[in-house]
Amino acid sequence: MKTRFSSLVSVKKNSMQKSELVVQNANNNLNNARNALENAYIELQHIQSPIAGKITELFASRVLLNTQRNIIKENEEWIIFAEKELGFAKAKLKADMIEYEKFKYLELKEINAILKKIKIKEAKDLDEIALITHAKNNNRVA
Prior knowledge:
single chain, 142 residues, 2 helices
């Protein structure tokens, strides 16, 4: 049944679905960031410092360690950013869900009002038919 809120309900539903997709993408982004951080820690554990050898090998190992630590720091910052992004996406989804439910409720309320009017009209029509039938029966009997 179409009401004046039907188009708004569909718009709000589309908006809510888009927000759900944004939340899913933000979750994926956060998971990717966590996996990247985990992999960076694993790579850091695999880097071995030379025990003996030339000083250039020691410096190269040191640069490699510093680079890996920088990668870890960047991944930690990525996680923080992804968590904030997810928080914003969830807040938007919550707001969109509230809007959707609000308009859906208003639509349902209007549908119930329309159905109530229809039932009242049908009851009046049935009463009228009953009166006409009763009047015909009384005319026949008299």
